[in-house]
Design a protein that fits this description.
By secondary structure, this protein is an alpha+beta fold. The protein contains eleven helices and 40 strands.
């Protein structure tokens, strides 16, 4: 049975209750449950005003909302159309097998196994779904898990080449299948099917509406647009300061330097170990005098030996196991995590951070282990304040980011910028830079990162970075690795956030004191620009200088992201509608005027480049001009990444020389 009321369509069938309604202009929301529809908005913001209408067309009920139309047949089948009368997609009903497009199968405890089946559309391409180094650009043909792990952030939103965005509003563990026979969204244990469809003429239009639903990133601080220096890990206050001083002596500007993990006495203490960091307040002041900010690592892990463990345990502030022992991961001991879904736990952790870090002048935090990293990933064995892990696990990084953002706001901080390893729908509104986790240090990994960054951009996260050079491995004395690092550094200079980090090979590891933390917490080898020889240092220093000259341009792109939701780094199809652009992953726009063409293979000194049609292009290195709509061979000596400027841009080639 199909019923209409005001601007809402309801479908009542045996075992399901479906509700179809506007959710802001150009957006239609569909929810389906075995019983009453619940207002589980999770991380969605309230909808804006919509001027929608219901009408009858023959036996169909039709909901029209701006650029989008939902058509419901008398037997309850749903399809979506744009304002031009073009089909966006339709549910998949298999009459031969009498299989419904919506599956709601009950579990114990009020949860359900849910599936939404969608008919495949020929030639359709999908992008987004967060961050994962799966080496895919077009997601068509892929099956991807909906969960968080180190290097994987699930943000369940995809952009279709057919002119719509699809938002799966569900933090449950599941999967998304973009097959040739169907598209299917699955939640293993949740309360209701819930998805939103956004229609728009251009990708940027859809992205803006998506950000209206999930939040815009705040304005990015100008001071943070330069180089960030990091390694695993500076063991002492003096070691970190000496690196900053050396950058100053060499005339290489730094925006940020990082104090990484295990600078604390115990996990869950959230304070400096005074034996190795005797005067952090003085350290912050000296860095600020050099024009450098300090980023300090925070882990959400809590060790039973921590001074805060028993208080947090007794007040239900920790994630715990549903069955068996409490430890969820082993890292220098049995650890659990503070439960970021519990508002009291969020207050407790922020108050400790405020007392032990913020009071010393530290304003920027590295929110590591944000998935959280569980071993093994048995989501059904996790008990959060908000529910079982199968239903709510994907919310953890959202509330982890909120812990700090809300605390910093209440403390009067205006410019909030924190680094985080995982994200969910809406994380961008908490001022976080997402980075791609602990990736490998080789050319294969570099290629994957180009694709990863573009999917993140489509997923609504404009502040993104990667470990330049990769995290695991990398020998500063290896010529092959130095080449990889140089190519990665060139790519990093044209990422939204420009950050050097990694766990480099170290051949001279001392075996006796003063190694910190009993010698079990390793510190990687050197990872500063000068650590890789003079040739590499000079090339990388040149790209630091280019980045410095580009900072006003980069700031304008961040402002556009905050106002319009337009990604700073974006796939070619965002700006150019050619079918060809849906298959090009190794070129992208950095703002509207710079096309970046990274080199990601060993020994390559030239590469093919496609110049999109409808524009004239200028090689930033040579000044040579080309008409668009053609392939060319661009020079790519080791010291140069191919860059092309739109003709007519205000940017001048001298910026890149």
């Amino acid at each position: 049975m199909v019923r209409t009321a005001d601007t809402r369509i309801r479908i009542l069938r045996e075992g399901e209750n479906v509700q179809i309604e506007p959710y802001g202009k150009h957006v239609i929301r569909v929810r389906a449950a075995a019983g009453e529809i619940q207002d589980l908005d999770w991380t969605l913001l309230p909808p804006g005003e919509a001027k929608a209408e219901i009408r009858k067309e023959e036996n169909d009920a039709v909901l029209v909302n701006g650029n989008i139309l939902a058509r419901v047949t008398e037997d309850g089948q749903i399809s979506f159309w744009n304002q031009k009368g073009e089909l966006l997609f339709a549910e998949l009903w298999r009459n031969e097998r009498d299989t419904a497009a919506r599956v709601i199968r009950g579990h114990q405890g009020g949860l359900f196994h849910l599936e939404q089946h969608i008919r495949p559309m020929e030639g359709e391409h999908f992008f987004g779904l967060g961050q994962e180094a799966h080496d895919l650009f077009d997601l068509k043909g892929a099956t991807l898990d909906l969960c968080h792990q180190n290097t994987k952030s699930t943000i369940p939103f995809v952009l279709s080449s057919r002119g719509y965005g699809f938002l799966w509003n569900n933090p449950a563990i599941g999967r998304a299948e973009f097959g040739t026979s169907e598209t299917r969204w699955v939640a293993e244990a949740a309360r209701q099917i819930d998805y939103l469809v956004i229609a728009g003429d251009r990708p940027g239009d859809i992205e803006k509406i998506y950000c209206q639903l999930t939040g815009f990133a705040p304005e990015f601080p100008e001071w943070a647009t330069g180089l960030w220096q990091s390694k695993l890990r500076y063991e002492t206050q003096e070691e970190l300061l000496e690196v900053a001083r050396e950058y100053k002596r060499r005339g290489i500007p730094l925006s940020m330097i990082v104090c990484d993990y295990f600078h604390w006495p115990q996990q869950g203490d959230w304070k400096f170990d005074k034996a190795y960091w005797p005067d952090p307040e003085a350290m912050v002041k000296e860095l600020e005098e050099m024009g450098i900010r300090l980023l300090v690592s925070i882990w959400p892990t809590v060790d039973p030996r921590s001074e805060n463990y028993y208080e947090m345990r007794d007040q239900n502030m920790l994630i715990r196991a549903e069955r068996g022992p409490g430890p969820l991961v082993y890292c220098r001991g049995p650890e659990t995590y503070y439960d970021a879904t519990n508002p009291e736990a969020r207050k407790f952790v922020w108050n400790k951070v405020k007392e032990n870090y913020y009071s010393l002048g530290i304003r920027n935090f590295w929110l590591d282990e944000a998935e959280p990293e569980i071993g093994p990933y048995d989501y059904d064995n996790l008990r959060y304040w908000m529910g079982n892990g199968m239903e709510v696990s994907s919310l953890y990084p959202f509330y982890y980011a909120e812990t700090f953002y809300e605390g910093q706001k209440k403390a009067g901080q205006d410019e909030i910028l924190n680094l985080i390893r995982c994200a969910f729908l809406g994380s961008q509104r908490f001022g976080v830079v997402l980075w791609s986790g602990d990736i490998c240090a080789d050319f294969d990994s570099l290629r994957r990162q180009i694709k990863t960054g573009l999917h993140v951009a489509v997923s609504g996260i404009p502040w993104w970075t990667t470990d330049i050079g990769g995290f695991h491995g990398g020998d500063p004395d290896s010529e092959e690795y130095r080449e990889c690092l140089i190519r990665w550094f060139q790519f990093g200079a044209f990422c939204p956030v420009f950050r050097l980090h990694g766990f480099r090979d170290k051949k001279d590891r001392p075996q006796s004191p003063p190694v910190t933390l009993d010698g079990f917490c390793y510190s990687g080898g050197p990872n500063e620009l000068w650590s890789y020889g003079e040739e590499a240092c000079e090339i990388m220093k040149h790209y630091v200088e280019i980045r410095e000259r580009l900072r006003p341009y980069i700031c304008r792109q961040f402002q556009a992201a905050s106002r319009e939701g337009m990604p700073v780094m974006r796939p070619l199809f965002f700006d150019f509608g050619e079918e060809l652009c849906y298959g090009i992953f190794d070129q992208y726009m950095f703002g509207p005027d710079i096309m970046v063409c990274p080199v990601y293979e060993k020994g390559i000194r030239e590469r093919k480049v496609y110049l999109p049609a409808g524009e004239s292009w200028k090689d930033a290195a040579t000044g040579r001009e080309y008409e668009g709509g053609t392939w060319i061979t661009a020079g790519a000596p080791l010291e140069r990444i191919p860059l092309f400027l739109r003709k007519g841009t205000e940017l001048e080639e001298r910026i890149f020389q």
